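Hi X.,

You mentioned you wanted examples for the new student's onboarding notes, showing what a folding record looks like when two proteins sit in one file. Here is a clean example. The first protein comes first, with its sequence line followed by its structure tokens.
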Amino acid sequence: MGERDADRRAEKPEDCRRVADGIRESTDRERQTPAAAEETIPTEATMLLEEVLRRENLLDAHGRVLSNGGAPGIDGMTVEALWPYLQQNWTRIREELMSGTYKPSPVRRVEIPKPNGKGMRPLGIPTALDRFIQQAILQVLTPLFDPRFSEHSYGFRPGRGCHDAVKAAQSYVEAGCRYVVDIDLEKFFDRVNHDVLMSRVARRVKDKRILRLIRQFLTAGVMTGGIVQASQEGTPQGGPLSPLLSNILLDDLDKELERRGHRFCRYADDCNIYVKSEKAGERVMASITRYLAKRLKLTVNRDKSAVARPSKRTFLGYTLTAHKKPLLKVADRSRERLKNRVREIMKAGRGKALVETIATLTPLLRGWVAYFKLSQVRGVFEELDQWIRRKLRCILWRQWKRPMTRAKKLIEQGIDRARAYLSANNGRGPWWSAGAPHMNAAIPTRSLTQQGLVSLIQEHRRLTSLA
């Protein structure tokens, strides 16, 4: 079926579409229609609130909220203070939840830098109590929704993750899909239409008390600068329920892409569709943009979306080489983000012992290389290793300050006296000196390793050998 036909189907009411085409296979795959949902909803779905408030579920929810940590909401309550509060007030809170009179608090708005360093990303931090209740709801709703999600959806799902999505993307390009339709949804979490979202939730959830509670969380409002603003749309990032709700809404997109026979990967609001030609990609981009606007009331960010070769785009921090058999590679933006974070740590470490700075770096470097262990191009790890070692030597050169001190330190590290005095008085800046032969000889790689510095290339080899 062509893209134009698919658009016409998207504009029709679902019942009309089902009767009009009369295709049994298509209607079986559109499993989210209200009629199909009614037939498959278990009887327990009408008694979900009791399951949410079951003691074992609540204890598990509290444990997860406690382990996740996080900043306090507008009431200032930490997750550590939540348990004593529940012991004193749970009877009242439970009655409010059962009667439908519970009122979630507005979320606290904070902003964090975007990964690309351009602008800030708003987060909404619920109170510890609201996070606890959301987590309890999440644990009950996940088994109800997740088994019906698309196999091409990888974000925030049990047993799935970024690495699975990246491997799938590589397999599509290997199979001959040499163009990618990279779709970026404009301010997705801030623009979610509440009515559209709740209609999707109601397909599987028949307990009106749960539906009312979820909508109350969506409309609780946002506190910014001490002023509460009403929430007319959006599902603020920061609450436990937000990822599941985003998957519920975007599952319609997944099912539509499956029905059209596309190869795609979606991680939250990041969706890549793989096609065999640029012309096909442009057609898919236009069609899906119209579908999202008409069906889900979502807008595609045209500045960040594109049809291009996979080697020109970034997906979850990775990119692909342009070889006939493409290789996974760390994207340039990912490398620069690591460098920026290392620069911050190095700047803070100028007045500290080098071993303290290295200790601060260690978890960052181990976590970074563990995420990018799928990379099949290793040059970036070696390049970063050299750059990090030079930055550490630069710190020492700055700390030594005066030429006499620098000469003395070089001599202590085994450098010849004449060479030490000549190097200490070279008149060059710290960065040049940090890369010069005298500093490489005085502070060799072996010395930095003994102080605890992690080698990215060695760690990558270790992790790939374990795979």
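Then the second protein repeats the pattern, sequence line and then tokens:
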Amino acid sequence: MKHIRRSGIWRKFILTVLMLSLLWSFPLPAEGAEESVRALYREYRERLEAITSRADIAANGFEIVEDQIFPIELSGYGEVSMIPAFDRDYSRLALFFVQEDGAVLYKTDQLETNNRVLGQMKQPNKAIAAISFQDLNRDGRMDVVLITFCVNESGSYANKPYKVGDVLFQDKAGTGFYRDYRIADKINRFGMNKGAESITAFVRDGYSTEFLYTATTLDELLRNQFQIITEQCHFRTFGKLGRLQVVPGVYRLATYDIFMIYLVNEQGNILSCLQPMGDYDNLYALKGINCRDIDGDGLKDIVVLARYSYADAIGQLVVVSDYSIYYQRTNGFSVDTEIHNNYQCSDEDTMEALVEKARAYWGWKSEND
């Protein structure tokens, strides 16, 4: 694996523009609604600040996650208990650091997971996926790795569980914690939130998946230890896009195989990047890649069938089969949502059967049409 390298000026500029565009994409509340949110936030903050002992947590509207209470060493206080709790009204997560007599020594709700829906009090937090304690910045003090499960109620991502990773660094006094929003941004934007191991590999050891999303050539991928799945790598002609090499492969981060597919021209330049793994944690097995016309427009599309693994809400390993279809357009490829919303494949599905069902959706009568 290759350690994180300094980005060029152009890359920093692009990432800055992406961050600003995300901020601008959120609708601003009307003046009356904004004042209402402020009033609710003041009430919420008053309840949070009123908590000075463990007994106060439930009394002020927070529900303790009992199976996620762990001891941690704070250099300024000694061993304490870290107690996570969700606010019952707004699903905001707070962490309370409590000594043996029940006194709250430190508390914080300044967490990445509490900023999923900007401008609203209620957040989509559903559960804690993982908590781990590591010395991430090698200063001799224990830091906190936190991963939560979230589910949005509306929008294009509605009802689809996803993970949010975060890191809290213990301060020099050993009496509290601080965050670096830039680290949390990269953890979540580049898919390094799959597990505590992947976050540790990034923050402590310097390994990163960022190159998977920013590389412009096949050589750059290979220099960063991207492993091509050679048996599924081949050239195909895609209409006006020309002759392209379909390059599937994985990058191993900690215990996770991150699966990507690149379309590379004959000069070795990446024209398109496909991400069929979505929010799954790991590629378990690639069952096949098929390039043929699916929607009947005369252009080759791409069908990907694979098995993926992930840890569910109670930490058990789940392995499922899933597929993705990418339709060729004049300027690239667009991912299918229509068929996938209507048909979920099973472990028994083969590529041939999946292609036949997909083509039938678009009106093909038989494989020979």
